[in-house]
Amino acid sequence: MVVAAVALRSVSILILVLWLAVPARRLWRRRGERRAEQVLQTDLLAFVDHLVQQLRSGAALPSAFVEGIARWRRVDAALGDVAGALAGGVSLEHALRHHAGGLRTPAIRMVTAATLVLVSNGGPAAPAFDRLGEALRASAAADAEVRAQSSQALASSVVLSLLPVAFVLVLILIDDDAAHFYLRSVPGLGCLIAMTGLLAAGWIWIDLAVWGRRR
Q: Which of 13, 20, 78, 143 has the CA that lies 20 to 30 A from 67?
């Protein structure tokens, strides 16, 4: 009987620890995704600055574009198979219209759209990309401000959602009566099931309201 109680307690503790690990893993993965987005945004700004410099020095837009994606590989990957299409001899307009894909962030879409307009309709390209760079920098600054303001609220919500789990875990570890109640009685098991359901609902809401909007 004692062995069974110890085994049941160990299994319950393992389940609670795994439950604590799920949001931590999701936060760590999302942190890596945000870091990758910031690095891509930095490379994209450098790519646009490169276009402006090359265009002002007299280079043609297609050649400046090809040179830029060869230099900034993350931008190349975000544009999909544009580099391969250009290497195959198609025009820049055709490559952007029919071969662009992959990581389609708003900044990438802005650069693609601006390039398509300029290669299709002509006009002074350097001032256009200069203004595009200013818009991308303003967007990056706004994104950074939003991340700074929301990170504290998100961290608080995570901590508050994990407190019930940590509280129950500590009780089970230090109090035999609490362990008996939560693990071997119907009301206690009902409390654990209700807590699990509420936490699951909360994490689903966070996923849809916070992380889902940033995909």
A: 143
Query: Model-level pTM?
Result: 0.62
Per-residue pLDDT tens over the stretch 133-178: 999 898 888 877 777 776 766 677 777 777 777 787 788 788 888 8
Q: What is the pLDDT of residue 1?
A: 47
Query: Average pLDDT of 190-215?
Result: 70
The Cβ of residue 113 has, within 10 Å, a number of other Cβ atoms equal to 12
Residues 6+ apart with CB under 8 A from 115: 61, 65, 92, 96
Task: Name 80's bridge partners.
Answer: 100
CA atoms within 13 A of residue 80's CA, in its CB half-sphere = 17
Its domain, for residue 183, covers 2-214
Instruction: Pick the closest to residue 210 from 145, 139, 151 (CA basis).
Output: 151
Query: Domains in the chain: how many in total?
Result: 1
